[in-house]
Amino acid sequence: MHKNFIAGEWVEGVTAGLNINPSDTRDVIGEYSRADAAQTEQAIESAYQAQKTWAQWTAEQRSDALDRIGTEVLARRNELGELLAREEGKTLAEGIGEVVRAGRVFKFFSGEVLRLAGEKLPSIRPGVDVEVTREPEGVVGIITPWNFPIAIPAWKIAPALAFGNAVVFKPADLVPGSAWALSEIIARAGQLPAGTFNLVMGPGSKVGQTLAHSRKVRALTFTGSVSTGRSIGMTCMERGAKVQLEMGGKNPLVVLNDADLELAVSVAINGSFFSTGQRCTGSSRLIVEDGIHDQFVAAMAQRMAALRVDHALKAGTDIGPVASQDQLDQDRHYIELGCQEGGVLYAGGELLQRDTPGFYLAPALITQTHNAMRINREEVFGPVASVVRVRDYEEAVHLANDTDFGLSSGICTTSLKHATDFKRRSTAGMVMVNVPTAGVDYHAPFGGRKGSSYGPREQGSHAREFYTSVKTAYTLA
Q1: Is 95 within the bounds of a domain?
Q2: What residues form the catalytic site here (predicted)?
Q3: pLDDT in tens, 7-38
Q4: By residue range, what is the domain housing residue 364?
Q5: Is there a contact between 148 and 178 (Cβ–Cβ < 8 Å)?
Q6: Catalytic position from the list 88, 137, 246, 458
Q7: 246 is catalytic
C-alpha cells in the first residue's frame, strides 16, 4: 500500500484505489491511499505549523535541499521514466524525458533560491529609506493533472519550496504512482522539517475542495479542466487567496504556402499526436493555406500511417495508448461529432488491437472543417487534429485568434515578415515559429491568455510572482 505523507509520517488513507496500466489493463501498478477531507485538514495544519520553520532556513540550506532532490530524480531517470510510461501511457523515451525535466526544474530552483533579490528605492521624503522585499505566501496548495504526472508537480512544488512556502500536494487520482515516487524523494532526500511537504492523494471532490476552501491555504495552483479551474478560482477569490489556473487550450498551427512541407508535417505530427495528443499545448487545429493544403494533408496521412501505436514500453512505439477508458470515449465522441458536423475523417481514428489489452487509438485527421464546429471550439485532449483550409495569411491569423483559449499557437513559414507579424498578432501566451506548439523550456515562463490561464506565469524566474508576496518597508534614517 502506498500511503499519504502527512506531518512527516506515511499515513494510510480512508480508502484506496488501484493504479492500472493503460497499455495493459491486466497490469496493476500498485494500490494507493485516498484521503478524505479530515486527513486533508491534518495535512494543511501540519504545513501551517511547519512553514515558519522552513522559511527561516537560510537560502543556502533551502538551495541544497532542492539540489539533493533534483540529483536523485536525475539519477533515477530510467526507473522513474518506466514507471511514468507504465501508468500514464507515454512512450518510454517520453517518460524518461519528462523525468529529466522534473529533475532539471528542481536544480533550476535550487539556484533561484539564491537569486531572489529585492530593491532599495529613493523616497520622495528626505531621510526615509524604502525597501521592497519578497516573502513566502505561507501554505501553498498544489493540484496537478494526469498528463504530466511528474513534470507539472515538479514545476509547482520546486518554486513553492524554494521561496519558503510549505506544500500540500494533491496529484491526479488517475496517476498517483509518479507523484508518490517524487514525494518519497522529496520527503527523504530533501531532509525538510516535518510538515513542510505533504502528499494527500484522493478525489478532487474531497481533497481538492478542502484545499480550495481552507483559510490556511494562502495560495493555490491548479492545472486541469476549465470547469474545475473556474470553480476553484471562484472559491479562492471569495476568501481572498491567491490563485493560479492553467486550464487548457485549442491551439492553432498555421501552415502557409511558403512553408517547408517536410518541416511543417513534422511539426504538426509532433504537436498534434505525440504524447498521444494529451498535452494542453498540443496543436489540435491545423489552419492551412489553400495553395499547400492538399499536399500537406496527403503528406500528413502518409506520415500518420507510418506511426506505430503500441505498448508504451515496447521498443519502436511512437505513440502509446490513451490514458483511460473515459478519455478514449471522449476522443471517439469528438471524432464522431466532427464527422456529424460535416468534417471528413481523412486518416486514422479507429480502435486498434495489440498484444495486450489497452486503450489504443489510431491518431485521427479530420479535414473539411470550419472554425465554428465544436471539434474546433472545444478541447478534445487526444490524438485528434482537424484541418481548416484558408484563402490567405490574413484569414489564417483571424481564425487562429478566433477561440476562447489562448495558450499556445504556431506558424510554419519561410517568410520573416509573416513570422514576425504572427508573433506580434497572435493572442496566445506562447508563440512558436517552425517548432511544435507543444514543448517549452523549464527556465522560460509558461502560461496563456483568455480562457487558458489565470494568474501569474509558471516556471522560470517569473514563478516568484505567484509563490511570493511583495512587502514595501519605510524606515526613517
Answers
A1: yes
A2: 246
A3: 999 999 999 999 999 999 999 999 999 999 99
A4: 251-433
A5: no
A6: 246
A7: yes
